[in-house]
Amino acid sequence: MTRDAMKIRLKYVVEDVDRHGNVRLYFRRNGKKIRLPSPIGSPEFLAAYKTAFAGESKAKSAPKVGQVIPGSVRFLYAEYYKSAMFRELDPRTQKVRRGILDRFCQHKNDGDKPFALLQPKHIRARRDEMMDRPEAANGMVKALRQLYKFAVRYDLHDRNPATEIEYLSPKNADGFHSWTLAEIEKFEETHPVGTMARLALALALYTGQRRSDLVQLGKQHVRDGWLVFTQHKNRNRSPVRQEIPIVQDLQRIIDASPTGDLTFLVTAFNRPFTSNGFGNRFRKWCDEAGLPQCSVHGLRKAAAARLAEMGCTEFEIMAITGHRTSKEVTRYTRAASQKTRAESALKRMTAERK
Question: Which ranges carry the Tyr recombinase domain (predicted)?
Fold first, then answer.
């Protein structure tokens, strides 16, 4: 085989002449030069050429720091972030989900592994590593379910391995502490009518709404004695429009309290609360009343429980709280419903004996 023929067949081989007139062979690619033994076409030359070609190809394909590998888990969730499924989520939900998926990818470089090879056993093993934090483990499983739901919906994958993973039982199966009547009275004694704290308690107790809704309620939502508004949660994907009557006790407290122009609840600087800011402020109000176990979310649960004790059906309670399914309402009202059913059953037994 002639030297010219070898030049045509072998890519990136060049000849350089040194200052003494000697011809030297090099493998040159991407600005790099690797010396090759002479003569061209010899076994030594071909072996060195093969090694140089393989090494440069591997170096070229190796990902740079921070580079997303096509087909990896990190690639999948980068595509997920661009989708309508993700963009329609509430900004706070987006932030939380990003954090969960980022931590998943950083764990043992799982983000660089092919997403198509992720099996239920891999997710279950990661979940079990987090057994001391069941809420965080369940949050990870939920985030992966949504990630692979996107993959299936957009024809990037044919199955959702995360749906086969069971949630762990939370440390506190009943969730947030539900306020008792005694605790409500203790809070009212500490924060009388006319204070922002008492107004916040009344709004939460008599509307049963989340704190993200409480901070947006204002005079513009009042229509003929009703609060008419769209709940903040899922407002972009599946909005829930609420119409709740303003009971007499709530109206009395609103009339006696200082309120903002756009929202009933305002900060010391007469500005609307953020959801997190309101949660922190309410936490201080509870501590001032000696109620460290209580929270604003617990009032939503207490409102549902009180309605259940009054004999309201789950659908009637859902009309107040805005829940789409009865699953959460059942969890909120389990104890109250048991008490109501027990009382009703014993009344029937007594009546039958008489």
Answer: 174-345
Q: What pLDDT, in 10s, does the model give residues 107-118? A: 988 999 999 999
- Helix intervals (H) in the chain: 3-9, 43-61, 73-82, 84-87, 91-106, 120-129, 134-153, 181-190, 196-207, 211-214, 248-255, 275-288, 296-309, 314-321, 326-353
Structural domain span for residue 226: 181-345
Give every CB contact of residue 350 below 8 A, 6+ residues apart in sequence: none
How many domains are contained in the chain?
3
Q: How far apart are CA 74 and CA 146, in angstroms?
A: 14
- pTM comes to 0.63
User: Does residue 207 lie in a domain region?
Assistant: yes
Given the structure tokens 């090099």, which residue do they identify? 26
Task: Report the pLDDT value the prediction gives residue 294, as an integer from 0 to 100.
Answer: 94
**Which residue ranges in the chain fall short of pLDDT 50?**
1-8, 57-62
- d(CA 13, CA 269) in angstroms, rounded, equals 74
What angle do the packed helices 91-106 and 134-153 form, to 10 degrees?
A: 100
264 Cβ partners below 8 Å, 6+ apart? 199, 203, 217, 218, 219, 254, 257
CA distance 290 to 277: 20
- Residues forming beta bridges with residue 14, ordered by sequence position: 26
> 313 with 187, same domain?
yes
